[in-house]
């Protein structure tokens, strides 16, 4: 029930690899880390492959990241979401506004 | 109605630290009852959302209260009750914030919260909220969804 955050810098873009669960307990630390990363990099990709649980607090973090990225004119996208996590973006309609790139999306 | 059921109750401090513990419990019980993987994921999210709401809205001071989570295990359904006895849960403002993303809203005006109750409603079969002397969220998920009409999928409120 924790979240590991690991970032890899690659020129002026950065990949944030997450592993674990995003909920009310882990979201504040993720938000702080992600927003800083967006300020500092031209492009940030969040790799969600190892995220096996997320709820609306996670959606909140990514809405916040989207807002920040627009304000400072940076690119921010989510990659490799598990089906149950992608589903929440789908139900809420946020998949229409947040850039999500899924290699394995499933039939949701 | 004298329907047999097992009841499990847990009380946790109203802190985000314990949302995951309640979620694990829910997952264990739902697995025990024979819910599918997807249904268990739905239950986990819905229960976490309800507790997170309580933690965020009902208690402003650190460590000010407790959340009671009750699981009613029936033959055909799980009923989950989440209760707090704090006094500042603003149901009206929460209900105003419910809904999926509306494309007419510019990104700068998007709310970072407010999806919680919407998700509960989307993921559970039945949701009831009462708001007197604290807030109680009662939500139900049926084991055999095909035998149950989905038309009763709604949020009802009594204040």
Automatic annotation (TrEMBL), chain B:
<dbReference type="InterPro" id="IPR050267">
    <property type="entry name" value="Anti-sigma-factor_SerPK"/>
</dbReference>
<comment type="function">
    <text>Negative regulator of sigma-B activity. Phosphorylates and inactivates its specific antagonist protein, RsbV. Upon phosphorylation of RsbV, RsbW is released and binds to sigma-B, thereby blocking its ability to form an RNA polymerase holoenzyme (E-sigma-B).</text>
</comment>
<dbReference type="InterPro" id="IPR036890">
    <property type="entry name" value="HATPase_C_sf"/>
</dbReference>
<keyword id="KW-0418">Kinase</keyword>
<keyword id="KW-0808">Transferase</keyword>
<keyword id="KW-0547">Nucleotide-binding</keyword>
<dbReference type="Pfam" id="PF13581">
    <property type="entry name" value="HATPase_c_2"/>
</dbReference>
<dbReference type="GO" id="GO:0005524">
    <property type="term" value="F:ATP binding"/>
</dbReference>
<keyword id="KW-0067">ATP-binding</keyword>
<dbReference type="GO" id="GO:0106310">
    <property type="term" value="F:protein serine kinase activity"/>
</dbReference>
<protein>
    <recommendedName>
        <fullName>Serine-protein kinase RsbW</fullName>
        <ecNumber>2.7.11.1</ecNumber>
    </recommendedName>
</protein>
<comment type="similarity">
    <text>Belongs to the anti-sigma-factor family.</text>
</comment>
<dbReference type="GO" id="GO:0016989">
    <property type="term" value="F:sigma factor antagonist activity"/>
</dbReference>
<keyword id="KW-0723">Serine/threonine-protein kinase</keyword>
<dbReference type="InterPro" id="IPR010193">
    <property type="entry name" value="RsbW"/>
</dbReference>
<dbReference type="InterPro" id="IPR003594">
    <property type="entry name" value="HATPase_dom"/>
</dbReference>
<dbReference type="GO" id="GO:0004674">
    <property type="term" value="F:protein serine/threonine kinase activity"/>
</dbReference>
<feature type="domain" description="Histidine kinase/HSP90-like ATPase">
    <location>
        <begin position="12"/>
        <end position="141"/>
    </location>
</feature>
């Amino acid at each position: 029930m924790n979240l590991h955050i690991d970032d890899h810098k690659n020129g002026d873009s950065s990949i944030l690899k997450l592993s674990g669960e995003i909920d009310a307990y882990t979201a504040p630390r993720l938000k702080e880390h992600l927003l800083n990363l967006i300020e500092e990099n031209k492009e940030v990709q969040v790799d969600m492959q190892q995220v096996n649980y997320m709820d609306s607090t996670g959606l909140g973090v990514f809405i916040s990241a989207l807002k920040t990225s627009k304000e400072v004119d940076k690119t921010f996208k989510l990659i490799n979401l598990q089906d149950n996590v992608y589903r929440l973006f789908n139900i809420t309609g946020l998949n229409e506004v947040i850039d999500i790139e899924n290699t394995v999306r499933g039939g949701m | 109605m004298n329907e047999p059921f097992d009841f499990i109750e847990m009380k946790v401090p109203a802190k985000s630290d314990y949302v995951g513990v309640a979620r694990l419990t829910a997952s264990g019980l739902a697995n025990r009852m024979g819910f599918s993987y997807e249904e268990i994921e739905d239950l986990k999210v819905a229960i976490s959302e309800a507790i997170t709401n309580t933690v965020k809205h009902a208690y402003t001071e650190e460590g000010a209260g407790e959340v009671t989570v009750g699981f009613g295990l029936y033959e055909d359904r799980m009923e989950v009750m989440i209760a707090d006895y704090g006094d500042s849960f603003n149901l009206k403002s929460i209900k105003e914030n419910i809904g999926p993303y509306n494309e007419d809203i510019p990104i700068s005006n998007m709310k970072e919260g407010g999806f919680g109750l919407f998700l509960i409603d989307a993921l559970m079969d039945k949701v009831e909220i009462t708001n007197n002397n604290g807030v109680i969220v009662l939500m139900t998920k049926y084991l055999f969804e095909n035998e149950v009409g989905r038309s009763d999928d709604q949020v009802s409120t009594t204040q």
